[in-house]
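Repro:
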Amino acid sequence: MPENFATYWEYFDKIYCISLYERVDRREQAKAQFRSVGLADRVEFMIVNKHPVDCEQGIYESHILCMEKAIRAHADTIVIFEDDIIFDRFNPDTLKKCIGFLRTNTDSKMMFFGCMVKKCRKTDNSSVLKIRFRSLAHAYALTAEFAKTIVKIPWQKIPFDDMLRGITGTEMYAVYPSFAFQSNSRSDNQRCLTLDKFRRLCGGLRRIQKMNEFFNYNKTLIIGAHILLVLLLIVIITL
């Protein structure tokens, strides 16, 4: 890696990582992950107490808390991580291209370093995809302008991911290939324990996220190959 690659992160004014007070284990793991990508001294941990009633509300309010703090600090660019972050396939050149895209595309309000998408398409930057967001908000960057819009949206019993998915008219992008994933550590979201178990059986969120990225990036090719296969089978059967 380039010796100065850690300086690429300097584009972002504030970088936060959300962590529950009692999850010291996750904070230590996250610190090691941040060191591996040049973020050792840049991340501020936003340590919060578990919501007494609704864990989804706690997650929602924690993300809002980070944005509000960044806005008060007059940050223009903000990054928010969750403490189960794990980096894989990280390439400084990919990050550099991503930041170059953010500098020159003023319509880019939000950039995910890793997420699940409904669909995606290429941009003129080989390291950036335009996306329709599906889920996973464990690693993303956003502008203060967009953060000011989000913090005005009160908790309405809708999980944070679902709220983001419902926002229309906003350009959302993702790094390609993605390099931020969620680890297989135990989920703190009591509502998702069954889903969390299923994800583990499928190889964990990292594998699922990579499969989602591969399918959506190559969707036309994959669908075309299946259609061709069906046509070949029809021809063989009718011979």
